[in-house]
Amino acid sequence: MTEFFQSLGMSYEWAWAVATLAGILLIALPLMLAVAMIIYVDRKVWAAINLRRGPNVVGPFGLLQSFADGLKVFLQETIIPSAANKGIFILAPIVTFTVALAAWAVIPFSATAVLANINVGLLYILAISSLSVYGVVMAGWASNSKYPFFSAMRAAAQMISYEVSIGFILVGVVLYAGTFNLNEIVMAQKGHGLGIVNGFGFNLLLFPIWVMFFISSLAETQRVPFDLTEAESELVAGYQTEYSSMAFALFWLGEYANILLMCMLNAILFWGGWLPPIDWEPLYMVPGIVWILLKTFFFFFMFSWVMATVPRYRYDQLMRLGWKVFLPLSLLFVVLISGYLMATGHYGAAA
Amino acid sequence: MIQTIAFYMFAVLVIASAVMVITARNPVHSVLWLILAFFNAAGLMVLVGAEFIAMLLVIVYVGAVAVLFLFVVMMLDIDIAAMRAGFVKNAPLGLVIALVLLAELVLGVGAYRVGVMELGTPMASEAPAMMESNTGAIGALLYTKYLFLFEAAGIILLVAMIGAIVLTHRPPKTTRGHQDIGKQNRRNPDEATVMKQPIVGEGVEL
Fold first, then answer.
1. How far is B114 from A33, CA to CA, in rounded Å?
2. Which of A174, A236, B4, B10 to pair with A44, CA 20 to 30 A apart?
3. Taking CB atoms and an 8 Å cutoff, what residues of chain B touch A149?
4. Residue B63 is nearest to which of A138, A163, A317, comparing CB atoms?
5. What is the ipTM of this complex?
6. 3-class DSSP state for residue A193?
7. A148: Cβ–Cβ under 8 A, 6 or more apart, which residues?
């Protein structure tokens, strides 16, 4: 895009700045629209599994429900509790929302459609996702209220626990792909399954760690069955209890943007990203962005499905799963995968 | 031009937030300023082309260490008046430490201005193969030339971790006994429940 703006007679630096800004808007605005629609999908899927109708009043099939909700919170009064730590109280939803958007900078939507094609893309994602806990912790602390504070404590412990195993799971993927660049990780999956199917998920060594990754991504985004931070039966609404109006909406948007990001990571890291599922020439006629969006949508459906069918974990069970099951298993798989790759000479004769 | 603007922005923010860390009255605010300082330091590292180190700084320090800091500081009930009372008592020690730091800074700047230190010339055979990403370059160096030091550091960390666990571990004192997750999972409805068809007007014999 920089070349295009340069051709309009701008200097390189100006063209770069304008192109980057345009790229950010090109990702962020459709993302917001996608979040609105995905909330609608979530509620519809949940309702269908519960044999209910779900939102069906605003707009055709209730499609405009999320926009109506957005308008509602926009018109509400912003309430800041008098005992709250005002600055941090306001900063917390902004941090949540900003961090949720920042991670999208390195996501490859197709071979060329990526804002920042950096070498350490996967590490960047890991860094940004480890930041998302700050919004929750700041909100819980600044509210100066018991339940939000409990929620913040839970969130901090939960995110740290599951990040460890996510890190080890990603090591498995990186060992196979040999790079941290997300676009190259996608390309490494081309014809990975016997030259027929595209995706690390078809590999027998990588399929189990994908299952762990999927469950960890549920925990990382605080979705059911791991939504201990906003467990309404114990903590009212968790860290969001004292929030109202747009501050509340920012939490909501950030949460769903994070969920979409995790669905997209599932698609990119394990199921071939923007490659078609089968390595067959005519399928490459379909633009890559269609494939990645289809896969993302499928994983989001799985998220909703889990939400509608699985009861919430107890907190000690959550910790046990993270530290006593996923951590040893993911460590074992790092050893197994690197051992297999060394034995089969994946890294050349030097092995 | 953009690099220059970015450098001064990051540099000013690092120093400003570092000053705020020690001047903020609320310890939670201090930790949050510290996080901002980490962030801008990572930004500076990206500017010099060390993107791997920058990401590690964010993942390790911001993502893990600072979260634990925040976790602890939030739960501490810090009495600021009591801390003020200790100020006069600890002032001489603080002054000594400040003087030592100042002397080190002066020495460091002085040594820098004298000239370049002779560290020997790198041999062609030892230099790692130039790779396009510094992730690969760091890996190649760490696992060949500095393998022993790297592994030794790993062992030391492992020992420290086990030591911390041994020091804090206490046997559970609950009277209810331990939960056996496997046992809980093995239970099936047939042996855990009974179906009764009670007759109206009569109770259930359990």
1. 60
2. A236
3. 74
4. A163
5. 0.80
6. strand
7. A139, A140, A141, A235, A238, A239, A240, A241, A242
